């Protein structure tokens, strides 16, 4: 009987161990320096986003990143969730021109975007994107903070990690620059951020480090837009189930009291 | 068998009213009372017997969430990934439904493996429960196909390359392989046609699973539950009515399972969501590390441990097929491993080998994992084909308890 218990326990433990092992499966292609860990408000089981940082990060994305990087999965309406009103979202959308079908002559026309439209892709197709960027298409950023090995820490490290290359460094292709945190310590993206490049409306000094931090927060928010709702609902559900578990345990013990 | 008497005892309260009217024409009320209220159940079932109820509830949750996902899903190579992103971002509560569905798949397979282990360990496959065992194995196979087809649908990198690896494995079958691969995929590589077929397959199989669960439960209610002692109840002292005893116990198991489920859905989604699958499928770019979901890893480990491709396929399919023979491979009259010291050790090793094969699959059977994988494959089949038939010979002079109630008293 006790042996059976041990077996059962071992079996469950083995299942859990294989689950945990899988969650750490992250292939990291090419050698690079280990990105230093940053403190993010959205880390951990109770993490939440600092929405003012997300909004500043959107400013960085809109004024800098969006020139080359798409964010296909997002609609302008999704931006409302970072604390904007629908009027503000509509105004942001209206600044963008998207394909608007064809006119009476059958020629393609564009129109101002609405909140229901997806973010405009900076390039017509991946080939055009690659051709305009030394043969390397800039990755879509909808889920970048999730799929980029190393996550937000490494995105921040790459954005702030450009420096003088060691003497032995030779670019492997045109346009490649040295960056110790990129895969193979080399990246096709030239340094995107510098001090004062972005205009922050909330008066935060726009240093390159601040811009990097904000845009990383924005990318993490875009990759997991429901993180905060998930954590909040999760707390409620878990507390409810714990309470229910106690009640059901008492019920079960009472029902079984005349058997054992 | 256990409740022949209850059929002939009409409940006084039900003689009038809508219930009685309905029951005279379609005896759902009395059938429910007979099978889920008065139903006599061994009094000594342990926590492992909760997993049948848990599996039923998870299946219903999968169907409920799956229907809403299907409504918003586009089964085309061009539209699938974007439609799943729209479910995650723009459909109200879509992220929650999808997270429950994805977590549910892992939880379902985990519960299924525990349920299967329970059946093997306590000899629940032996006479008169062979049909119960066989219908359960059919369910296992159907659930695996459903899970695989479902994993392809989001059309991320892992979806695409998982389908590609499976297609290549089918292709390795001599003779019919290429034809069968083409039949499943509709082309030489996964694409529009395969996605459409997998979508239909996923939906049809999901509801077929529900039907076979009906058969499985019907078979259970013919023979009644086995129990940890593996001896049949000898009288009313050995059993308790299903309600309120096992309804309350199942409720506790369900709430605890739901707690674990909720923790994964709300706080540890990375455990079930593969990050690589958030990249859209790209037929031109093979991911560095193609691996199936954790619940297929032991079979992937077998596939990769065997030197020949077709041999590996045979072995991993055979690992499931051999389970169908278990009721006839096991000659011992004793059901529960509790009274079978040799078999109990063998079962422990089998569990170790199964988990080990999962790790072998994760490491693509490279280096030392290859040797470990081959040892585990040999043990897996030796367990069923050699040790299980021989184990009966080691069991002489074993005295089983006279009844469940007496055994319980003696143990306490």
Give a description of the structure.
In chain A, 42% of the residues lie in helices and 6% in strands. By secondary structure, chain A is mainly alpha-helical. Chain A has a domain of 175 residues: Cytochrome c-like domain (Cytochrome Bc1 Complex, Chain D, domain 2, Orthogonal Bundle), CATH 1.10.760.10. In chain A, the strands form 2 sheets. A two-stranded antiparallel sheet of chain A has the order 1-2. In chain A, strand 1 and strand 2 form a beta hairpin. In chain A, helix 2 crosses helix 7 and helix 6 runs antiparallel to helix 7. The N terminus of chain A is likely disordered. With 412 residues, chain B is mainly α. Chain B folds into 2 domains: 247 residues, Cytochrome Bc1 Complex, Chain C; 114 residues, Helix Hairpins (Orthogonal Bundle), CATH 1.10.287. Chain B has a two-stranded antiparallel ribbon with strand order 1-2. In chain B, helix 11 packs across helix 12 and helix 11 packs across helix 14. Chain B starts with 16 loop residues before the first helix and ends with a helix. The N terminus of chain B is likely disordered. At the A-B interface, helix 1 and helix 8 of A face helix 4, helix 5, helix 10 and helix 14 of B.
Large-scale geometry of chain A: globular
User: Given the helix and strand composition of chain A, which structural class is it?
Assistant: mainly alpha
Structural class of chain B: mainly alpha
CATH architecture of the largest domain in chain B: Up-down Bundle
Q: What is the name of the CATH class of the largest domain in chain B?
A: Mainly Alpha
Give the biggest sheet of chain A. 2 strands, antiparallel
Low-confidence stretches of chain B: 1-8
Instruction: Please identify which CATH superfamily of the domain at 30-74 and 119-248 in chain A we are dealing with.
Output: Cytochrome c-like domain
Transmembrane segments (chain B): 48-71, 100-120, 132-153, 199-220, 251-273, 310-329, 341-361, 367-388
Keywords (chain B): Electron transport, Heme, Iron, Membrane, Metal-binding, Respiratory chain, Transmembrane, Transmembrane helix, Transport
Binding site for a ubiquinone (chain B): 221
Pfam families (chain B): Cytochrom_B_C, Cytochrome_B
